[in-house]
Write a structure and sequence with these properties.
The chain is of the alpha/beta class. It has two domains: 93 residues, no CATH class; 202 residues, Rossmann fold. Helices cover 41% and strands 18% of the residues. The chain contains 14 helices and twelve strands. The strands form three sheets. The chain has a six-stranded mixed beta sheet with strand order 5-4-3-10-11-12. A four-stranded mixed beta sheet has the order 6-9-7-8. Strands 1-2 form a two-stranded antiparallel ribbon. Helix 9 links the parallel strand 3 and strand 4. The two termini are 21 Å apart.
Length: 360
């Protein structure tokens, strides 16, 4: 997906956004025929290469369900419609319009989490999960235990992040994957660092950690060291880990489980001389950075950091009482420069819900 707004082709937007704010307002104020045209433009941008006949049928279906409503969560529903259709090609038993309608009915209920609604609908196709998918171009297999991960790894575009990781690590290096989930990026990076390098894969969710270990064993990835822990600013403590689903866990109030998990800090691994840090830990990234100041000062590793600012009911560092500007302060005080654009964004502690993937 281009970083230019697909509607005005002028303003630069973040890769997780669908259009610039000005164009979203324009679409909200459009008449029905214009709205349909705008929707098709956005669809072509989100799903390049989709056959036009298929695209138009989805636009029509979506427009009938959500006329003149183009806010972000509605576009996520549109993305899910494509997801459900693609799942049918992966052997999903009950994919199609009926599933999409059920998903929309669930997600329209007040207080329902988007991911939970997708999971509940996806549970109908349990015959296709778990399964091992062979990422031939990456050289590994990944056991996938849920439909959300089908969306993340098989259907979503991970190319830009994977490209950055591979461009910035070399054979023989040590990299740390904070928030390893099922091990997709850990396995990818393990291939790049080779047998003389290592990947320290840290995952706090006990369920995800078990799948991570399955995937390490499946691929005989002896250069990956799994660590079941929460990355924080101190080691040896225990934090109550709570998950919103069995596959998307974090430290926020959860619905399904709670378990005490030990904490580690990145500085604990300073003797391994890490050259690269990937940090994607659902809003707790500030604490990870505070626990890596010795590594940053002495080793200056390159980084890929996902900044979570998605709102009150989603992963958001502000839900922990942290401020985006504090991330900026920690990075700058340790010699990292984010550039004017990201510096401006993170200095706004009250910014609208969004997510940033920062490469340093």
């Amino acid at each position: 997906m281009s970083n230019k707004c697909p509607v005005c082709i002028k303003k630069t937007i973040h890769e997780t956004h669908f259009a610039c704010g000005r164009c979203i307002k324009k679409i909200n104020n459009s008449v029905e025929s214009e709205y349909t045209d705008y929707l098709a433009v956005l669809c072509r941008s989100i799903f390049p290469g989709l056959p036009e006949e298929k695209l138009q049928s989805y636009v029509k279906s979506f427009n009938e369900k959500f006329p003149l409503s183009i806010i972000a969560d509605q576009l996520d529903k549109l993305r899910t419609l494509f997801l459900i259709d693609e799942l049918s090609e992966l052997g999903h038993a009950d994919a199609g319009q009926e599933m999409f309608d059920e998903f929309c009915d669930k997600v329209d209920q007040q207080g329902v989490d988007f991911g939970e609604a997708l999971q509940s609908v996806g549970a109908k196709g349990a015959s296709s999960v778990p399964f091992a998918y062979n990422f031939k171009e990456l050289g590994f297999e990944l056991i996938i235990h849920d439909h959300t991960s089908i969306a993340w790894y098989l259907l979503a575009s991970n190319k830009s992040q994977s490209h950055f990781l591979h461009e910035n690590i070399t054979e023989g290096e040590c990299v740390i994957d904070c928030g390893a989930h099922y091990g997709f990026y850990s396995l990818s990076m393990a291939k790049k660092v080779g047998p003389t390098g290592k990947v320290i894969a840290i995952e706090g969710d006990p369920y995800n950690y078990a799948v991570l270990c399955e995937n390490i064993k499946l691929n005989n990835a002896t250069n990956i060291i799994p660590v079941h822990a929460i990355v924080s600013n101190e080691s040896g403590n225990e934090l109550l880990f709570q998950g919103d689903t069995v596959t998307e866990g974090n430290l926020r109030d959860g619905h399904f489980k709670s378990v005490m998990v030990k904490t580690v800090k990145i500085d604990d691994f300073i003797n391994e001389k890490p050259t690269f840090l990937k940090i994607d830990i659902e809003g707790y990234e500030l604490m990870a950075l505070r626990g890596s100041e010795q590594v940053m000062k002495l080793l200056k590793p390159k980084m890929d950091i996902s900044i979570h600012l998605y709102g009150a009911k989603q992963p958001d560092m502000r839900n922990f009482g942290f401020k985006p500007s504090e991330v900026l302060d920690v990075l700058q005080s340790n010699g990292y420069q984010l550039g004017d654009d990201f510096s401006r964004r993170l200095s706004d502690d009250n910014c609208a819900p969004c997510g940033y993937d920062i490469n340093l």
